[in-house]
Amino acid sequence: MANRYFTVSWDQLHRDARALAWRLLDKGPFQGVVAITRGGLIPAAIIARELDCRVIETVSVVTYDEESMGKPQVVKAPVAAGDGTGWLLIDDLVDTGTTAKIVRALLPGAHFATIYAKPAAKPLVDSFVTEVSQDTWILFPWDTEVQFVPPIAKGGVTPA
Ligand SMILES: O=P(O)(O)OC[C@H]1O[C@H](OP(=O)(O)OP(=O)(O)O)[C@H](O)[C@@H]1O
Ligand SMILES: Nc1nc2[nH]cnc2c(=O)[nH]1
Ligand SMILES: [Mg+2]
Question: Could you state one GO biological process linked to this protein (predicted)?
Answer without folding.
Answer: GMP salvage
